[in-house]
């Protein structure tokens, strides 16, 4: 093997190792935190030992909320498109931009309210011991406290 080929292979090997190290570092250090809904979902379905009736009730609550959440998220996407149009038209914070921002905030607020109603509906299915653990998880998620 010639010196030039060895050099190219060495560079390729170094690049490959660097890529692997980058992936490992990215997955271990830079991975975003799990969303609150995933944490609560795991708590409900894995840790609280729900009975069959509780599972059925919570599944229905989740299905109903998923439909409503999807609709609200579509509304938010439409609001963002209107905001983009207003920004493009006004090139500053004018009345169209202000109105689009207000509309978007209203939709965000509605999503937050309905998310809380969803959480309280699921909580209503739980026994007192389960509800206490659920409450701790919700408070921890909202205040970013570690377990």
Describe the structure.
84% of the residues lie in helices and 0% in strands. It has 147 residues and is mainly α. The protein folds into 2 domains: 1-31; 35-143, Four Helix Bundle (Hemerythrin (Met), subunit A) (Up-down Bundle). Pfam families: Metal_resist. This is Heavy-metal resistance. It comes from Edaphosphingomonas laterariae.
Provide a brief overview of the structure.
The chain has 147 residues and is mostly helical. It has helices spanning 3-29, 36-47, 52-90, 95-123, 128-143.
Radius of gyration: 24 Å
Q: Which percent bin holds the helix content?
A: over 70%
Can you tell me the number of structural domains? 2
- β content, as a range? under 5%
Protein traits:
single chain, 147 residues, mainly alpha, Four Helix Bundle (Hemerythrin (Met), subunit A), 2 domains, 84% helix, 0% strand, Metal_resist
Topology:
Layout: H1 3-29, H2 36-47, H3 52-90, H4 95-123, H5 128-143
Helix pairs in contact: 2-5, 3-4
């Amino acid at each position: 093997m010639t010196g030039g080929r060895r050099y190219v292979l060495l560079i390729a090997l170094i690049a490959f190792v660097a890529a692997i190290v980058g992936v490992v570092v990215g997955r271990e250090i830079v991975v975003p935190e799990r969303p609150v809904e995933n944490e609560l979902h795991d708590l409900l379905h894995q840790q609280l030992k729900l009975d069959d009736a509780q599972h059925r009730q919570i599944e229905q609550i989740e299905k109903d909320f998923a439909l409503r959440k999807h609709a609200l998220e579509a509304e938010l996407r439409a609001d963002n498109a209107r905001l983009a149009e207003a920004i493009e038209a006004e090139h500053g914070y004018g009345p169209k931009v202000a109105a689009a921002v207000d509309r978007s905030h209203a939709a965000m607020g509605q999503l937050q309210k309905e998310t809380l109603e969803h959480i309280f509906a699921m909580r209503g299915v739980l026994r007192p011991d389960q509800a206490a653990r659920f409450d701790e998880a919700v408070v921890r998620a909202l205040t970013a406290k570690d377990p």
